[in-house]
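Why do we care about 3D structure at all? Because function follows from shape, and shape follows, mostly, from sequence. That is the central idea of this module. The next example makes it concrete: a single protein chain, its amino acid sequence, and then its structure expressed as tokens.
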Amino acid sequence: QVQLVESGGGLVQAGGSLRLSCAASGGIFSINNMGWYRQAPGKQRELVATITSGGSTNYADSVKDRFTISRDNAKKLVYLQMTSLKPEDTAVYYCNAEVKTIKSMRIVTTDCWGQGTQVTVSS
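And the structure:
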């Protein structure tokens, strides 16, 4: 069974930095897009950044020039380097991956989510 496990969240002062990591495991054949989303209290989950298997990236306007997404395809890892953090970045951050597995000799694509990691930025 595919699992995504995030780590690296925590409490940081405004202007500080954090690096989130997400490890994918569990019978994975390949991974297409990977990404980070976040959900603040009382708000909908929103896209933060995505990265294709070829390394093309996309960012929400609110995090451009502050956050950097990267991945290690061989190790099935995706990272989110966050700098110049603001209180409004406070949220639970979720890892997402479009994962391909082989079931009954067929390739099955599943949209997978991690359990989330809390990021709190104090002012």
